[in-house]
Amino acid sequence: MVTSVNETPAVSTSPPTVRSRRLRRVVSTVTAGGLLSTYLSIIVILPVVATIATGVGASPDTTSGSWWPGDWVWHSNFSAFVDAIGAPAAWHAIWLSVWLSLLAASVNTVMGALIAWVLVRDRFRGQKFIESFVDIPFALPTIVAGVVFIYLYGPASPVHVNLFEAWTGLFVALLFVSLPFSVRTIQPVLVAMDRDVEHAARTLGASPWRVTRSVIIPSLVSPALAGFGLAFARCVGEFGSISLIGGGIARTTTASTYIYNLTQGFLWQGAAAVSTILLLISVTVLTGATWFAASFHDRRAL
User: Fold this and answer.
1) At the topology level of CATH, where does 79-301 sit?
2) pTM score
């Protein structure tokens, strides 16, 4: 009796060589880097560069027919940039935005830390409601917040507190929109904080204030600085929530409102010039806050 057997040739399953693994790693890195660079260029870099270029009056001469920007002849109108940011109304608007943003970010850094502490360390009825309530400024359109503030603190205020056309009204609105940044940057650190260190300090005889000063506060400095930078950047560019309560008069015109007024008159270079100054201020504060936070963290790690 003859039996036929179909034999399948063995497939080589040798492990990939070092060269193939290295090639795969390089390809994945280049692909990921290209996608990230393209996305960041379209969403962030190009708009920022276009704003700065418009602000300084930079315009290309493309009559050469080349598609490469290096072959274009660039012209600029820097004097118009200086005139736009040197106007008294522009300086007043920028200064009002900066000091109000610094004040609101500072207050919310302290209050955000206290709120985060209560949400992490305490348990009470309605805690989940308050937890979600903190994030309302993230979800609520800012113009809706402006309507709420003009109703509560406007000329017809039901609580008889009139903040219309006053810097205090702008300040309250900025506190509202920037609070989540301070709470949400500090809260995860409190959640991850090792409470055994606090118990050990109390066991060794440290008072509650000594534990707070020596153990808790140093751990919160870095996230607090990060939250301060984010809150400041949010406040300095805020428009919707303060546009109504400010009333549109000169003394309560912030930089964002001033930029909007310039665009209504089709003064695009002036609007871009003031926007460039706000961008530089925001980047400086964010970079400084990040640097101080990292420096403080590194000193504690030593």
Assistant:
1) MetI-like fold (1.10.3720)
2) 0.82
